Amino acid sequence: MKILTKRLSLLLIICLLGLLVANNVGLAEDKVLYMTLSSKASGILRILPEYQEISGVKIRVDVLPYGGLQEKTYLELTSKTGFYDIFYLDVPWMPDILPLVQSLNDMDIDFAELNIEGFIKNDFLQTVVFDPKDPGRTPSLDRALDYKALEEDGFKIYGVPTQPNVLTMTYRKDLFENPQHKEEYKKMYGKELTVPETWQELLRVAQFFTRDQNGDGKTDLYGTTLMAKKHESIFCDFKTLLYSYRGILFDANWNAVFNSPEGVAALQFYVDLINKYKVTPPGVTSYSWYEADMAFSSGKTAIGFNFKPMKLSENVKGEVGYAPVPGKLEDDGKITRAPHAGTWLLGINKYSKNKEEAYKLIKWLTSKESQMKYAEVVEQITRESIFNDPAAIETFPEYYPVHYQSLMVGRGRPRITVYSQMSELIQVQLSSAVNLEKTPQQALDDAVDAVNKLMSQTGYRK
Amino acid sequence: MSAVLNKKYQYLLYLPLLLVFGFTVVYPLIYSLYISFFSYDIIRPDMTSWVGLGNYLAALSDPVVIRATINTIIFILISVVLQMAVGIALALLVHKEFNKTNILEALLLFPAFLTPIAAGFMWRWLYNPDFGLINYLLRLVGLAGLNWVGQSSTAMLSIIIVEVWRLFSFVFLLTMAGMRALPTEAFEAALVDGANYWQTLRYVTFPYLKPVLLAVLTFRIIDGFKAFAVFYAITGGGPGISTEILSLQIFKQGLRYFDIGKSAATTWLFLILLSLVAMVLIKLKFKEDTY
Prior knowledge:
The complex is a heterodimer.
Chain A: H1 2-22, E1 32-38, H2 42-55, E2 58-64, H3 66-79, E3 86-90, H4 94-97, H5 111-114, H6 121-127, E4 129-130, H7 147-152, E5 156-157, E6 160-166, E7 168-172, H8 173-177, H9 179-189, H10 199-209, E8 222-224, H11 232-244, H12 261-275, H13 289-297, E9 301-306, E10 320-324, E11 328-329, E12 335-336, E13 341-348, H14 355-365, H15 368-373, H16 384-387, H17 390-393, H18 400-409, H19 419-434, H20 440-457
Parallel strand pairs in A: 1-2, 8-9
Antiparallel strand pairs in A: 3-13, 4-5, 6-13, 7-9, 7-10, 11-12
Helix pairs in contact in A: 11-12, 11-19, 19-20
Chain B: H1 2-35, E1 38-39, E2 49-50, H2 54-60, H3 63-94, H4 102-113, H5 116-126, H6 133-140, H7 152-180, H8 184-192, H9 197-225, H10 229-234, H11 246-256, H12 260-289
Antiparallel strand pairs in B: 1-2
Helix pairs in contact in B: 2-12, 3-7, 3-9, 4-7, 7-9, 9-12, 11-12
């Protein structure tokens, strides 16, 4: 009996100690902020300890991969417990979760101090400005970042942009600058070999570079990567082409209209790059952004498209350069570019009990001073002034101007609560088209039918 | 008196079990049935409305759900047959040679130890047509590689290969165990009667193994319905909807589109299908057990 009592007491002590350790001996803490981050938010993660030191506020972060983050965010927000104070939010979720995210207009904050005019306008308006009564509405993208004027038009600000993802092009500088290639290209096309600005130039350059480099009779270099897997990536690719062809996804009454001649031409071009001209690696229909990155970095292609600046792996000799995604050449000689863009934002939980503290942290994380510290990692910069500051961008001077230029013309996703369903319905049909199971017209007709059905069911289409 | 009290008292002892079972199984099940009749919006619960059988009709008329059902059945049929064939063949092959096959069994079990999602991501890269190991090896021997999971014609087959690789050892292991327990007399009698290998297999080994094999088959089929992670990691249902299966659809409806009502309705349809299959299998097994 004695032994048993002894053992039980020991067990109890161990349990208590365990509890204390598990609680991080955090009994005396008064201010703790809880936030979620995506695994890509390395800039923020790096400077958070600094804020803890300055402010004395403890910050607990849960870092999650994309899929897990979306589930966690939705479930936490809808549980209304207010456990997390700050959420790292992807913009396509916003129309859906808008009622659960705190608008900054309804807090007592000094907008002058936040300096919203300092953000990239096109990006800010598409990422954090929403109409709570009609989340589908997008403010006109040429208007000024004046919170009062926006509020008068029914718009409120729901957070601060961070991590702007926009499609950019990475190319093999060494291949483009090779004198032999230059000469060969000029002989073939009667033009200088330059980095493609238009889709037609992209096709020509991609055809030129698709070749057998080592003379074994097999193609070992391809023109370009695409992201043609049945995945969000194929929708982003299509959307980039669609908008640059001046097509649209929906009309003003939420009727899907992307099976227009512009849409069909855009998809036809995409399908042809893969199947007719064969300027993409043979496995491109199983590429999402991960595989596209790998294909380019392993030296398989001369050009690559991705949402980040790509680099070559160590065993590939060569140099890379960056450029905006090509566009459609208009009759007047102008080029319409519409790279897909989707920026993340830092938003406050409407049910948080520490909104003031949460706002202070967000303000600090997105201030110019903090963003200067992200310069090395590129990913978290959303302020125009950083892009225009030579000192700030000297860590990566060849990429920053391209990123900035792309953000200025980047096009976001449609603002609907059923975005994931819509994207999936379109992905399925795009995937059928690139696999030659359907013609682009058939695929887009079927996608439009499916999306319209969804839009009717969900009350968007009357 | 004390006997009566004891009898009453014993029911009280069931209470913790009933409570746990009630909260973790019965309540969620009934609740999921309940919300399957609503258009349930988790973001805007106030807009939740009764739709009757609407979610069921929507699921049954959804071409993606229909295709997912067909795909699920095709997947289970082919992958279970292959798992059984490979597992049994291997067991027959090695059970005589190795009486103590511990190391071999451990090695063969290795794929089953891997987390399905990790196995899925690993195979996604193995299958990569441009820099995956499989095509690399094929090219070494002069064959053109395949776009394994990037084209509809081979995507399902590719996933079936992964699932067979992952799970045949389960069949192997149980078949081995079954064979070790076989009575030696029958085999000796067969030997005396001059039966050859195939005759022994056909008339002695299989009849004795039948109950074990039926149990394994039941497990494999029911497990097949639960396949999810490998599909999620490798194709996400694509290309097109060629590898869309029911569990993936339920996940997408519930946790991607947050269409909880339809997801619950599809889950119930899935459950009915699964129950029917399970009933048939159990009946088969029951018949077998009562000879």
